[in-house]
Specification:
The chain has 122 residues and is mainly α. The chain contains 6 helices and 2 strands, in the order ααβαβααα. The chain folds into 2 domains: 71 residues; 37 residues, no CATH class. Helix content is 43%, strand content 10%. It has a two-stranded parallel ribbon.
């Protein structure tokens, strides 16, 4: 259930005005909104999920072929790539640099000029 809450929170801007279908083997998620007395964390999740228009479809474990296949898939490239951290602050840092006319971001001006008028200042 935490995965569903995390996904809706993470992709909020894409899901907020759209209808969604959640396929899950967690059948209790269907009855989450009918629960009258719940712990504080569960109530926070309910409040967050109430903003979205979604339908929960219960998929039994044996019929959930996609998740079953992905869990059994062998990873032949396990040690090929170095793990990278997701830098969620990149966008804000970049916008801050652009706002200050930082010389390390001239590529952004070229990109903006090209998209605005199909030209690049050299």
């Amino acid at each position: 259930m935490l995965a569903v809450v995390y996904a809706f929170e993470k992709f909020r801007s894409y899901l907020i005005m759209n209808k969604s279908i959640v396929y899950t083997d967690h059948s209790a998620l269907k009855y989450l909104f009918a629960k009258k007395d719940a712990k504080a964390r569960l109530l926070r999740w309910i409040l967050l999920l109430q903003e979205f228009d979604f339908k929960v479809i219960d998929t039994r474990g044996a019929k959930n072929y996609a998740a079953d296949h992905l869990s059994r898939l062998e990873n032949t490239y396990e040690n090929v790539f170095d793990p990278k951290e997701i830098n969620e602050a990149f966008l804000l840092e970049t916008l801050s640099k652009i706002a200050r006319n930082d010389p390390s971001t001239p590529w952004y001006a070229d990109l903006a000029n090209y998209h605005a008028g199909n030209f690049i200042i050299k």
